[in-house]
């Protein structure tokens, strides 16, 4: 991943670009900013923007079914692990002698 350390943490360069966008600073290299990099959201455009996000998500799901299946599998495994851990914790709590 070019701009991310892992799925939920971006690299320093992305943070710098976010600040440039938020603070409306001059851009170093216009080509390095995707056209849809950052959208000002307000009460006039939020519904349109959310509709676009939902539509884009549907398109992505249609075009990449293997990735969606992998994500669903990860969710299932995570839920199973959490349930297992909860049962272990619950058992330990129930066996505490006061």
Q: What would you note in describing this structure?
A:
With 98 residues, this protein is mainly alpha-helical. The chain folds into two domains: 1-38, no CATH class; 40-98, no CATH class. Helix content is 61%, strand content 5%. It is built from three helices and two strands; from the N terminus they run ββααα. It has helices at 12-23, 46-63, 65-94; strands at 4-6, 9-10. A two-stranded antiparallel sheet has the order 1-2. A hairpin with a 2-residue loop joins strand 1 (4-6) and strand 2. It is elongated.
List the keywords.
single chain, about 100 residues, mainly alpha, two-stranded antiparallel sheet, 3 helices, about 60% helix
Compute the number of helices: 3
Q: Main sheet: which strands, in order across? A: 1-2
Helix content: 55-70%
Low-confidence parts: none
Oligomer: single chain
Number of domain units:
2
**Radius of gyration in whole Å, from Cα?**
21 Å
Structural class: mainly alpha
Strand content: 5-15%
Report the mean per-residue pLDDT as an integer.
89
The 3D shape can be described as elongated
Please describe the topology of this protein.
Blueprint: E1 4-6, E2 9-10, H1 12-23, H2 46-63, H3 65-94
Antiparallel strand pairs: 1-2
Quick overview:
The chain is mainly alpha-helical.
